[in-house]
C-alpha cells in the first residue's frame, strides 16, 4: 500500500479530463504510477485518438480510458454511468475530479469575435461547470477533492488574452463558491494556477497562432484594421510566437502540485506552479492598487 504524505492512495480513483495530451496525459500516467485508478477522459478515442490509444496500450485495469467531450451533456452523462459501472466500490464514490481540459486563445478585444469568446468559455468554463456538477454526488460520497486547472491568467489579467482570462477568472470564481459550499460535506476544492508551460505542453504552437491570427485579422472590421494597422498587428503576433518558447519546459511542477492536491491530508487551496518572476508579478498585481500595478507592468 503506497502512502504519500498522510493520505492513502490505495483503492482511490480519479477522473481527469483532457487526457489526449499535455498536462492531462502526463498526469494520468503519474497518478497511475502512484497507485490510483485513473479514469482518463479523452476528447478523441478510437482511430484518431493517439493519446487515448497510448494510455490504453498500458493494458492496466487501473487505467480506464473514456470518451469525454466536456462540452457535451450526453458524453458527460455517459461518463457518469461509465464510472458508476467501473468504480470498484461505487457506493464509496469518486476520490478525485481533475478539470484539466482546456483551450488557449489570444487576440485584443477589438479583434476577438463574440463567437471566439463563447468557444473558449464553452470548454474552459462551462465544460468545468458541467463536469463538476455531474460528478459532485460521487465526489461528495467519497469526501474527495475537486481540482480545477485554471491559470495565473485566472487571477491576473493580461492584454491580448481577454477570451482566455474571462474563462479562467470564471473557473476561479466558480471554484471559490463551490469550496465554500463544500466545506460542510468534507470535500476540498483546489485551484492550480500555472504560469507559462506552453513549451512543455504545446497548448499553443506556431501553426495554431498563425491560424488564430488569420481569424483575428479577417474577422474584424475595416475600421479596426486601419486604426491598428497591419504592422502593429504583425508585431503582436511575433510577440505571441516568442511566448511559446519562453516558459517552463518541464511540466513536473504542475504535475506534482496536482498530485499534492489529491494526496496531501491538508492540501493548499491554491497552488502556483511558476517561476519567481511570475510569482512576484502575480502578488504585485493582486495586492497593489490597480493603477500602480498597471504602471509597473502594462504601460
Ligand atoms: N500549458 C500552459 O502553459 C498552461 C498554463 C496555465 C494553464 N493551463 C491549463 O492547463 C490545462 C491543460 O492545458 P495543456 O497545456 O496541457 O494543453 P493541451 O496540451 O492542449 O491539452 C489540453 C487537453 O484538453 C483537451 N480538450 C480540448 N477541448 C476539449 C473538450 N471540449 N473536451 C475534452 N477535452 C478537450 C485537448 O484535446 P485535443 O488534444 O484532442 O485537442 C487536450 O487533451 C488547460 O485547462 C489550460 O488552460 C495551461
TrEMBL record:
Keyword Oxidoreductase in record: yes
GO biological processes: steroid metabolic process
Protein name: D-beta-hydroxybutyrate dehydrogenase, mitochondrial
Top-level taxon: Eukaryota
Record carries keyword Iron: no
UniProt keyword list: Oxidoreductase
PROSITE patterns: ADH_SHORT (PS00061)
Single GO term (MF): oxidoreductase activity
UniProt-listed SUPFAM superfamilies: NAD(P)-binding Rossmann-fold domains
Organism: Chelydra serpentina
InterPro entries membership: NAD(P)-bd_dom_sf (IPR036291), Sc_DH/Rdtase_CS (IPR020904), SDR_fam (IPR002347)
Membership in a protein family: Belongs to the short-chain dehydrogenases/reductases (SDR) family.
Taxonomic lineage: Eukaryota, Metazoa, Chordata, Craniata, Vertebrata
Coiled coil (UniProt feature): none
Pfam family, one: adh_short
Amino acid at each position: 500500500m503506497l502512502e504519500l504524505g498522510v493520505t492513502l492512495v490505495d483503492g482511490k480513483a480519479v477522473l481527469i479530463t483532457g487526457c489526449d495530451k499535455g498536462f492531462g496525459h502526463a498526469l494520468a500516467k503519474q497518478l497511475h504510477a502512484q497507485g490510483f485508478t485513473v479514469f482518463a477522459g479523452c476528447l478523441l478515442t478510437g482511430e484518431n485518438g493517439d493519446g487515448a490509444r497510448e494510455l490504453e496500450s498500458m493494458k492496466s485495469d487501473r487505467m480506464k480510458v473514456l470518451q469525454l467531450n466536456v462540452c457535451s451533456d450526453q458524453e458527460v452523462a455517459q461518463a457518469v454511468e461509465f464510472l458508476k459501472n467501473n468504480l470498484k466500490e461505487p457506493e464509496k464514490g469518486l476520490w478525485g475530479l481533475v478539470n484539466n481540459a482546456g483551450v488557449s486563445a489570444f487576440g485584443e478585444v477589438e479583434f476577438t469575435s463574440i463567437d471566439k469568446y463563447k468557444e473558449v468559455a464553452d470548454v474552459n468554463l462551462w465544460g468545468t461547470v458541467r463536469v463538476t456538477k455531474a460528478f459532485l454526488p460521487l465526489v461528495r460520497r467519497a469526501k474527495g477533492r475537486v481540482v480545477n486547472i485554471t491559470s495565473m491568467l485566472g487571477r491576473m489579467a493580461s492584454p491580448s488574452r481577454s477570451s482566455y482570462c474571462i474563462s479562467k477568472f470564471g473557473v476561479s470564481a466558480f471554484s471559490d463558491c463551490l469550496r465554500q459550499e463544500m466545506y460542510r460535506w468534507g470535500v476540498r476544492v483546489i485551484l492550480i494556477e500555472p504560469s507559462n508551460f506552453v513549451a512543455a505542453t504545446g497548448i499553443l504552437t506556431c501553426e495554431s497562432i498563425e491560424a488564430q491570427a488569420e481569424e483575428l485579422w479577417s474577422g474584424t472590421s475595416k475600421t479596426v484594421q486601419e486604426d491598428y494597422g497591419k504592422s502593429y498587428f504583425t508585431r503582436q503576433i511575433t510577440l505571441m510566437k516568442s511566448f511559446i518558447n519562453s516558459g517552463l519546459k518541464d511540466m513536473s511542477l504542475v504535475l506534482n502540485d496536482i498530485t499534492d492536491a489529491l494526496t496531501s491530508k491538508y492540501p493548499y487551496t491554491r497552488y502556483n506552479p511558476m517561476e519567481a518572476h511570475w510569482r512576484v508579478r502575480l502578488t504585485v498585481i493582486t495586492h497593489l492598487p490597480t493603477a500602480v500595478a498597471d504602471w509597473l507592468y502594462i504601460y
